[in-house]
Fold ATP-dependent zinc metalloprotease FTSH 4, mitochondrial.
Amino acid sequence: MFSQLYVAMGERVVEELILGKSEITSGPSDDLKQATKFTRTMVTNFGMKKELDLLTHNYDDDGKSMSIDTRLLIV
């Protein structure tokens, strides 16, 4: 699972290292969106955050159906 996250983050890191922070293109933005989505799935569906225990959380509505405390733990 983590390897997919590393790959999604790789393009931005490479651009920053090769081109510098001021020259990063918009290409990695989709990768960052995918990494965010994947990480949220890891937390909400696979229980990969200690504070949330081994429970699944429906985040399909952007967390509107859960308490603000739970939503803040997920973000």
Observations:
- The chain has one domain: 2-74.
- Helices lie at 2-19, 28-46, 68-74.
- The radius of gyration is 15 Å.
- The CA atoms of residues 52 and 70 lie 8 Å apart.
